[in-house]
């Protein structure tokens, strides 16, 4: 299956998924990276890894004809979000039912919703005095961070952990699990 990765930042999750799927012998391929920021680090990563990258601003993303044509050009059948900081439009959710996933840096439903991304999430975990945090891989629906949960992995948080410590612990989970879960979802979809 061909997939697209949507990312707004440095692209570490994109690189991890590309490295797993675009290896010899894989039956899946990241055929496209989409970003909504012209200065996103994921652009350089995609170029280095030989994956085309398209810059799609919010207005274009909302335009089904324009963005749909881009996705069709690369044969996209599945979408993985990796730090994409724009709401996925309803037309896209309808186009890929059960075929858009996201990774969130907390154990949803805690610390999710609009504005809860990156350091904002880790600050909320710290402020709440949580004793654990982690990652949640979930399906994308029409609301922020509310789609069905596919997978969670947790890590212990101690009272002495700073926000940076929490972020470092959670980031260690991402490359271990997200590429594997995405690949398993693609395998299951391919054999339906």
Summarize the structure.
By secondary structure, this protein is an alpha/beta fold. It has seven helices and seven strands. It has a domain at 2-103 and 137-149 and 173-190: Formyl transferase, N-terminal domain (Rossmann fold, 3-Layer(aba) Sandwich).
Sheet with most strands: 7 strands, mixed
- The low-confidence runs, each spanning 5 or more residues with pLDDT under 50, are none
How many DSSP H or I helices? 7
N- to C-terminal distance: 12 Å
Summed over residues and divided by their number, the pLDDT gives a mean of 96
Strand segment tally: 7
- Roughly how many Å is the radius of gyration? 16 Å
Helix content: 40-55%
Structural class: alpha/beta
What oligomeric state best describes the polypeptide chains here?
Answer: single chain
CATH architecture of one domain: 3-Layer(aba) Sandwich
CATH class of one domain reads: Alpha Beta
What strand order characterises the main sheet? 3-2-1-4-5-6-7
CATH superfamily of one domain: Formyl transferase, N-terminal domain
CATH topology type of one domain? Rossmann fold
Which sequence of SSEs, written as H and E, runs from N to C? Answer: EHEHEHHEHEHEEH
Give the DSSP E fraction (strand runs of 2 or more residues).
15-25%
């Amino acid at each position: 299956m061909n997939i697209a990765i949507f990312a707004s930042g440095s692209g570490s999750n994109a690189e991890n998924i590309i490295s797993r799927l675009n290896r010899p012998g894989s039956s899946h391929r990241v055929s496209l990276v989409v970003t909504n920021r012209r200065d996103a680090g994921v652009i350089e990563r995609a170029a280095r890894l030989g994956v085309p990258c398209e810059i799609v601003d919010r207005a274009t993303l909302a335009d089904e004809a324009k963005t749909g044509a881009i996705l069709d050009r690369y044969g996209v059948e599945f979408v993985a979000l990796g730090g994409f900081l724009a709401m996925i439009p309803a037309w896209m959710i309808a186009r890929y039912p059960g075929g858009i996933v996201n990774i969130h840096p907390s154990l949803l439903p805690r610390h999710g919703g609009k504005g809860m991304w990156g350091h904002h999430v880790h600050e909320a975990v710290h402020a709440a005095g949580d004793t654990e945090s982690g990652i949640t891989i979930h399906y994308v629906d029409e609301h922020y961070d509310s789609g069905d949960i596919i997978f969670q992995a947790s890590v212990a948080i101690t009272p002495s952990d700073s926000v940076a410590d929490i972020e470092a612990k959670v980031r260690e989970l991402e490359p271990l699990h997200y590429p594997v879960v995405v690949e398993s979802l693609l395998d299951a979809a391919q054999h339906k």
